[in-house]
Amino acid sequence: MLKRLLVVAAMATGLWSATAGAALDIYITEGLAGARPVAIAPFKNLGAYKPPFPVEQVVADDLRRSGKFRPLDLAEMPQQPYLAEQVNYSLWNAKGVEAVVIGTVNSSDGTNFTVTWTLLDILSAKTSTTLKDGQLTETRTKFLAEGTRVVAAKQFRQYCHLISDKVYERLTGERGAFLTRIAYVLVNHGKPNPFQLAVSDYDGFNETPLLRSKEPIMSPDWSPDGKKLAYVSFERGRSEIYIQDLYTAKRTRITNFKGINGAPKFSPDGRKLAMVLSKDGEPDLYVMDLATSALSRVAPSREIDTEPSWAPDGRSLVFSSERGGKPQIYRVELASGSVSRMTFEGEMNLGASISPDGRKLLLVNRTNGQYRIATQDLNSGAIQVLTQTQLDESPSFAPNGSMIMYSTLHNGRQSLALVSTDGRFKAVMPASSGEVRAPAWSPYLY
Amino acid sequence: MSLNALFKAGLLALGMMTLVACESTENVTDAGATTTETVAPAETGPTAAELEEQRLAELRKNHVVYFEFDKTDILPQDEEILRAHGAYLAEKSNVKVLIEGHCDERGTPEYNIALGERRANSVVNYLKGLGVSDAQLSVVSYGEEKPVDPSSNEAAWSKNRRAVLVY
Question: A283 and B23: CB-CB below 8 Å?
Fold first, then answer.
């Protein structure tokens, strides 16, 4: 059963501009058996102005989507503390909750809000007896992390994502990726300019359109500093690669060769752009030095080569190729040019990228005619199919590798979908109108 | 950028400028539907130029060939269409044609761009075999980006796997 988690209308208060609501709604499609129980207690409003969003809901939603946590529903909570001294550890411990976030919100003008939060460790608080000055001291309160900040209403939700990042990092030891953005292409065939390039927060809120066009827009990719997008536009009647600065809106045409100009991908150092050009016949991989525009051809073949993606160290590319028959994933070492085949399972494998930690290959696997998102362990070669949705494609890792955004067919419309990399959490994010495709997750933005 | 600077500047929430793409590129896929105003003079009969225009109008009506799933070969039932275009183009060496390659939505967008180009090139090679010169032919692949029918079923997919000749 689909459970609607975010109710857009209820949240679009007068404090928010028209574009501030979620352009994409998130529906959970799969539960969280085995995830770690945590609680985000309702944040106490100490002022007269209602905060733009309930902090506890934004943070709980974030943590849930990682697949690693199961935030308790309000009805399951044994108490609703907002100050550390109110927390009854044994009550939470009895619920098996390992950590609780509490906090307050206050505003004297409805424009700026003071948000204060604390992450408390329930599990180790119980046993945290320490030897100090020759005496055993039992500490009942264990602050794992805390923070306070005055934030403008417009940035309120993003500050909630920052709290999620801090909580996630403290509890998992890996950096959180909730204060991140996604780029994608909206398609609305009824409109005079059916194609639109947009970015939003990772959860679909704060959508900003970047480009509208009569002709297709494809393949957005973030620069590693998060300030630019490379993409393909057909606005002049054929494919061309552009780089656009997100803050100045300055746009530069990078290629307009005869044939395909496609699949741009920034190198991890941001100095190069991998791409696909067919100027010399079949589509081949190229790497362009962005300072000099010098092009070098990589791993040429007489068959289709496409979908280059950089290894995190920038020394190799993975790509799709028909050099062995049906498309499979290959890797080319850039220094030596040596090419090795990486995938052997299924009828074809496409659209691959390497996880930020370098351990997994993310790809689109076709087996029995079904296109599914899967990961392949780079050591063991084991494949884990993560999705059971239809026509899944364009998977993109969150910068910490914990979640994957991809596009899928949902109720006959192309939609974005989210799956945690462990496969536990699954949700779809349809656009409020039309179709949405080609998601690209931003790097860390701070 | 430090976190403080990030929030102070409000960069994440910054309203970015909207560029509206150059609108000079009209969608030319339906060119066949726009050339119907050929009125023959009642007494003198059509002039050479009018006959030429009629012939081109006929070609524009039959300007799409279709492909099987994951395939790029020209199907036997489409050869007659391509022979008519080939004969015309071979005769009129100053006429140029753009061949668009398209795919259904299955498979990744980038792979479909490559597949669509192969389909368009199948048409190019067929026409070259009929004596059409390279200089008359150009190709663009739209992959799965411009379906005729956006539905997700076999009927729609078979209509979308196509190459279109645009004069």
Answer: no
